[in-house]
Write a structure and sequence with these properties.
alpha+beta; 8-stranded antiparallel barrel; 4-stranded antiparallel sheet; 17 strands
């Protein structure tokens, strides 16, 4: 601002000074000889220029032209950018999402998390596993397939460090077992504690399924955070807990003919109420055998990366 005022006043000073000098020249006995003019205040400091104009409050003292340019540049310069503040321990992360892969008793999985607050994350994931095996039980040959497929969501609370408590849900519980059954003709087998023989003319065959309710509450505890608050971009995860999936739902369906132990008296499975009652008893036995797993244990290991 000081430089701008000086530049505005300069023409007025030059004009006033020139007029004053001309008048002095005309009144001098040496009319053509120029007279030197001494500006008051400039005796002892040749580096200063005293500028004046007829405008009130317009007298400005500048140290030098170089100072004027520096002053003007300082006034118009933009404030320096201090840059991002250093991230120290315990400060909130700038990451917006974390991705992890894991292996658990629910199968191989992938999950993602987003921060909600200083000590809360929202996390969701998907798990899958396939396994097939043939077994024989009570004389019945089963070709079984284990299908693990589930979607889960958790609210992770971190009371201190990376330790967390995570209530949540299996919002889709597709874990199930399917099987095909067969009993070769002439082979004996048991249904509901009763011995039968498969009719060679119409051998016994069937299917079986075992599954659970589709939505199950869960609780997990562990260490590790997909979005560490210390600024790290990777993490190691460990969790233990379980999902309450209730009692198993078992369904057995058989077709063909069964015969008594002598193999002489045979009847259709579909039309014999005694055989149907024994099938129901067999379903109940399988359900009771699986009952301890109504609270399904979950053990999980994984790694995560956030960005």
């Amino acid at each position: 601002m000081r430089a701008k005022t000086a530049l505005w006043a300069l023409p007025l000073v030059v004009f006033a000074t020139g007029a004053w000098n001309t008048n002095c020249f005309s009144q001098s006995e040496f009319g053509l000889a120029p007279q030197s003019v001494q500006v008051p205040g400039a005796d002892n400091n040749s580096g200063q220029v005293f500028l004046a104009s007829v405008s009130p409050n317009s007298i400005v003292l500048l140290d030098s032209p170089k100072d004027a340019l520096a002053s003007d540049s300082a006034e118009n310069a933009a404030p320096a950018d201090p840059g991002p503040a250093p991230k120290g321990p315990g400060k909130n992360t700038s990451s917006h999402v974390g991705i992890g892969i894991k292996f658990s008793t629910l199968g191989a999985g992938i999950e993602a998390a987003v921060p909600l607050a200083g000590k809360l994350n929202l996390r969701g994931g998907f798990n899958i596993f396939r396994y097939g095996r043939g077994i024989t039980n009570n004389g019945i040959n089963y070709n079984g397939n284990l299908h693990f497929q589930s979607g889960e969501a958790h609210l992770d609370w971190f009371p201190f460090g990376g330790f967390h408590v995570s209530p949540g849900l299996l919002f889709y519980n597709g874990n199930n077992v399917t099987a095909t059954a067969a009993v070769p003709g002439g082979q004996t087998f048991s249904l509901g504690g009763t011995q039968y023989e498969s009719d060679p003319a119409a051998p016994v065959s069937g299917t079986g399924t075992l599954d659970f309710v589709k939505v199950s509450p869960s609780i997990m505890v562990g260490v590790g955070n997909l979005i560490p608050r210390n600024g790290r971009h990777y993490s190691f995860l460990f969790e233990v807990g379980g999902a309450y999936q209730g009692s198993a739902r078992v369904a057995l369906n058989f077709a063909g003919n069964v015969c008594d132990s002598t193999g002489t008296i045979c009847r259709s499975i579909a039309s014999d109420p005694t055989v149907q009652a024994n099938i129901q008893a067999q379903q109940l036995k399988i359900k009771n055998d699986i009952n301890p797993y109504r609270f399904f244990p979950v053990l999980s290991f994984g790694v995560g990366f956030n960005f």
